[in-house]
Design brief:
Blueprint (H helix, E strand, L loop, with lengths): L7 H14 L13 E6 L7 H12 L6 E6 L5 H10 L6 E3 L4 H4 L9 H7 L7 E2 L2 E2 L5 E4 L2 E5 H6 L8 H13 L3 E3 L6 H4 L1 H12 L5 H6 L8 H15 L12 H9 L3 E6 L15 E4 L10 E5 L3 E3 L6 H13 L1 H11 L2 E2 L15 H11 L4 E3 L14 H14 L3 H16 L1
Parallel strand pairs: 1-2, 1-3, 8-9, 11-14
Antiparallel strand pairs: 3-12, 4-5, 6-11, 6-13, 7-9, 7-10
Helix pairs in contact: 1-3, 2-13, 9-11, 16-17
Length: 424
């Protein structure tokens, strides 16, 4: 499952600690060389049982080395990894982090290019300056718009394909007393899902090189096309598209509410598919957030899990474990079924995993495998289009501020300054 980050104030201090200690405290927490640590996280889809089984499966590749699980206390794996690193306890292996937050300090070991080319359909999908720090094992769509078919039918609604049609759905549901859009606003990354989707559809959909142009200073967040895309988020807020208390709703509660029929739509990463049981699958469908042109834009990322501590005393064993974890069919089967992951292994079909999937999964997988307009999802990518270190957290903060402030231009001006400071 893609990361969901904590409050930016806490992260800022940890980023400073990372910069100060990056050259001296990158050692692992494993200790004596016969053990190593694997920092994981738990979610409604990826439970403790999943991690225990997946670790046991991959540990067969390093039978003489014990792998100890360290669980991030919350969804912000980046911040927790930085905290451990600042204390001289940077894990040997890390799950689902943002590599750009660590590569400048030389903390991550790149995977062998030949191994990537031999095993993955998109071997460079996670490449940063030509090196890959997370194997491109699977892909995700962030966000998809999930919708309740029963609620749509009761209100005589069709799946929208244009922005005007989408806003009509929002207004119709609001008038009917139904919350149009579920939002896990109490979880920063989840609160940014609608904004990420709007920017991807309207800005990156028209110019896939926009993020690279921003790195070069050729575009700004205050440019008209970006302001127009971000203003759509305020349009949704002003139309009552979200519950007034959305900023206090946790990710787990938002999932529960939507799946219980408390809202008509839910912009969320494709991992939500894993929570839609076969019994409930007939009640739900998905569509892409409409772009300004009406042409479909797929907010795509190549995902993966395992990164390796370059300064670990166990770096070779850690890399062996990480490669085994990434190629394990049982692990990927679990990710397909419980986390909605779309596999990207070479010469392995979906059928080969033996996974049980629903029609909702099939809808998403078709978007991944079809030839269409796929672009890197804004603020979600693990490759060169990833945001500068720390800026993902500031983007999440921007989304939360936009929920209560109509000063779109002012907030984007401040975000431009945050970007420029981080990208130096």
């Amino acid at each position: 499952m893609k990361r969901r980050t904590a409050f930016v104030a806490a992260v800022t201090g940890l980023v400073s600690a990372l910069a100060i200690t990056g050259c001296s405290t990158g050692q692992s927490a494993g200790g004596d060389g016969s053990s190593m640590t694997f920092m994981t996280f738990e979610s409604p889809s990826l439970t403790a049982t999943f991690w225990d089984k997946s670790i046991a499966q991959a540990q067969k590749s390093v039978p003489d080395t014990k792998v100890k699980k360290i669980v991030s206390p919350d969804a912000d794996r980046n911040a927790y990894a930085k905290q451990l690193q600042a204390a001289g306890q940077f894990p040997d292996i890390l799950s689902s982090i943002n590599p750009k937050d660590f590569t400048d300090a030389g903390l991550l070991k790149p995977f062998d290019q030949k191994w990537l080319e031999d095993n993955f359909t998109d071997p460079n999908g996670n490449a940063i300056a030509g090196k890959t720090y997370i194997p491109p094992t699977n892909s995700q769509i962030i966000p998809m718009v999930f919708y309740n078919k029963k609620i749509f039918a009761e209100n005589h609604l069709q799946v929208p394909t244009t922005w005007d049609q989408f806003m009509n759905v929002v207004k119709t549901l609001k008038s009917a007393g139904v919350t149009p859009l579920e939002m896990a606003g109490g979880d920063p990354m989840s609160s940014a899902m609608p904004l990420s989707g709007l920017i991807t559809a309207d800005v990156l959909g028209s110019d896939p090189q926009w993020v690279q142009k921003r790195y070069k200073g050729q575009v700004k967040f205050t440019d008209p096309e970006m302001v127009a895309a971000v203003s759509k988020f305020r349009q949704l807020v002003d139309a009552g598209g979200f519950d007034k208390g959305a900023l206090s709703v946790s990710y787990a509660d938002a999932n529960t509410q939507f799946l219980a029929g408390k809202a008509g739509m839910y912009p969320m990463g494709s991992w939500l598919i894993g929570l839609i049981t076969p019994e409930k699958a007939k009640d739900f469908g998905t569509f892409l957030l409409p772009s300004k042109t009406g042409n479909p834009v797929v907010p795509f990322i190549t995902g993966g899990t395992t990164s390796v501590n370059a300064k670990s005393a166990n770096a070779d064993d850690a890399a062996t474990f990480a490669r085994a974890w990434s190629l394990s069919k049982p692990n990927l089967k679990s990710l397909i079924e419980s986390d909605g992951a779309f596999p990207m292994l070479k010469n392995v079909t979906l059928k080969d995993f033996g996974a049980k999937v629903t029609p909702v999964y099939d809808q998403g997988y078709k978007l991944v495998t079809d030839k269409n307009n796929k672009v890197n999802a804004f603020a979600q990518a693990n490759n060169d289009d990833a945001l500068p270190p720390g800026v993902v957290d500031q983007f999440c903060s921007l989304a939360q501020k936009l929920f209560t402030s109509s000063d779109t231009k002012g907030l984007l001006t401040a975000f431009d300054a945050d970007w420029d400071k981080a990208a130096k």
